[in-house]
Backbone:
């Protein structure tokens, strides 16, 4: 899991979903908006379309948060975004390393579309 300081609160989630921009990666739909803080904040939203079982959705959420933590995204201080990750259905079939590799490309996706 990631520290609470790196998670979005409810108000920011709603604001980011409404006002943020969208980018798609291989395994995720990414909604983001630039923030004024020193670090990026993340949220993972998993739909029941992924799995009807809460156990599967919660496990996937924990795996994605761990991939964010170990990918080094929390240490980047150059650009800070409020980021919401919405996984695609194919995420269930992928292993941790594939998810981590896809997540590590996020700064390039966000920065290139923001300039």
Residues:
């Amino acid at each position: 899991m990631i520290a609470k300081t790196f998670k979005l609160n409810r108000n920011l989630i709603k604001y980011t979903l409404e006002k943020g921009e969208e980018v798609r990666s291989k395994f995720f739909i990414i909604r983001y908006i630039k923030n004024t803080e020193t670090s990026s904040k993340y949220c993972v939203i998993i739909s029941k379309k992924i799995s009807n079982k809460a156990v599967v959705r919660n496990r996937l959420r924990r795996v994605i948060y761990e991939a964010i933590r170990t990918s080094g995204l929390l240490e980047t201080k150059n650009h800070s975004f409020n980021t919401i990750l919405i996984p695609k259905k194919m995420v269930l079939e992928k292993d941790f390393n594939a998810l981590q590799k896809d997540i590590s490309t996020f700064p390039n996706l966000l920065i290139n579309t923001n300039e």
